[in-house]
Amino acid sequence: MNSFFNFKKDFVDKDKSTQMFAIRLSFAFGILMLGIKWYAYYLTGSTAILSDAAESVIHIIGVGFAVFSLWYSFQPADEAHTYGHNKISYFSAGFEGALIILAAIFIIYISVKRLIFGIEISNLDKGTYFTFAASVINLTLGAYLVWKGKKTNSIILIANGKHVLTDSWTSFGVVGGLLLTWLTGWLPFDPLVAIAAALNILWSGGKLVRQSIGGLMDEGDKGIASSIKEILDKETMDKGLEYHQLKFRESGDVLWIEFHLLFPKGTLLEDAHNIATDLEVSIKKNLNAITNVITHLEPFELHDETHSAASRN
Description:
Order of helices and strands: HHHHHHHEEHEH
Strand content: 5-15%
Number of helices: 9
Number of domains: 2
Strand order of the largest sheet: 1-2-3
Number of strands: 3
CATH class of the largest domain: Mainly Alpha
């Protein structure tokens, strides 16, 4: 059993290093993308490219907070935070989502202003090349971040990866708008594409904020609930036991589970404790997450009377 937990600890430490590398890589590439896009805007004066560049500014701020959040989530529990610091993951996702929404509003404002007061664009060919290059780089980076996030069960990496992918699809949309403007000579294509890109960004930001609220409110995942029940049903049936009062919640990448385990009357406390410990180990082995399990041991026969008395008090 000790070898299993030592392996688990080494695996978790490796995951932490992988996550920190990935988020720092995202930050470094974010700065590179920001430079490319703002240079493309400098060359063209395109509203669509400006919208893409503005989203990159927001991305840099969001990733900066994500780097801190990931580091902070790895800090051990202390007297002020006895359950650890993992829930900052949801604040990070919500913060990034809120910034994305602000960027979208700014883009729509600038685009409408350009439509009303006039549009000036130059060097469309060079601007298109630079924006397309940024799109491809972001597509690769976003896919990598989401993959690593799912592999290490990191909400921060997944949220950041989805943001980068949204940025990528936005950039591809901008490239399409620039090509239409270039080929047709009709300048309003540029701000109209920027508005369409902003609406896509707005939808992405709203989903991140929704995910953040769900996590902070301990919203349960049906897939995880089904997996836990399947393991518990099998284990308790094999051991001739029963369980109830199952609860679980996610705190960042840590899963907390608690339930009442019912034993036959007369079972020695030591035996009950050993059985419960084996069951907890089985749950941890079968779930793809860092898991903490709390069991409350109860006798079958006196269960109803004990809970009735407790409720009356």
